[in-house]
């Protein structure tokens, strides 16, 4: 079983798991400015070589052995687009900090034991409903996080996929960013600590 270094891309930074302290450490790049509704890592493209250099050095500070042996298990926000996924993979691969990457959405990590469930989360730009079955995304719906009706979203969750209409499906509320106050009654709330505990033991076979 190939072990990987857990990496979480949050709304504001990149977290890397340090196996020595058993804590996540935050990587930020000085001089990077944020813009509304645009994930922070888009700014890395303006200073790509510099960003990759500092990221590699950051990884080496916690994993000093050959970086060419590292595998990064990258957990991304649920609204990450296909193009953003490609950029993220290329950024890490070309940084020299690893030999391979595997990517998964936050929603796909919320339960390892329950085969089918609904996840709801909020990124820096969207509220995201996902229907996860056997670790795969079978349905997904987005809502602008600045303009939404929580009651409408809760009702939509009941009709997100045809399977849900015939079976009682558990709901996981991803409160990793502590921004889900409007949805806490929907289902089981995943706290920041609970979320990071799940990610800390991730490996590439589970991805």
Series of H and E elements: EEEHEHEEEEHHEEH
Query: Which structural category fits the helices and strands?
Result: alpha/beta
Strand content: 25-35%
With strands numbered from the N-terminus, the spatial order across the biggest sheet is: 3-2-1-4-5
Radius of gyration: 17 Å
Main sheet properties: 5 strands, mixed
User: How many beta-strand runs?
Assistant: 10
Count, helices = 5
Which word captures the global form? Answer: globular
The residue fraction in helices comes out at 10-25%
Question: How would you summarize what this structure contains?
Answer:
The protein is an alpha/beta fold. It has helices at residues 48-62, 82-93, 150-157, 162-166, 192-200, and strands spanning 5-9, 14-18, 23-27, 71-76, 100-105, 116-122, 126-133, 136-144, 171-174, 188-190.
Structure characterization notes:
With 207 residues, the chain is α/β, with parallel strands linked by helices. It has five helices and ten strands, in the order βββαβαββββααββα. The chain has helices spanning 48-62, 82-93, 150-157, 162-166, 192-200; strands spanning 5-9, 14-18, 23-27, 71-76, 100-105, 116-122, 126-133, 136-144, 171-174, 188-190. The strands form two sheets. The protein has a five-stranded mixed beta sheet with strand order 3-2-1-4-5, sandwiched between helices. Strands 8-7-6-9-10 form a five-stranded mixed beta sheet. The longest helix has 15 residues, at 48-62. The mean pLDDT is 91.
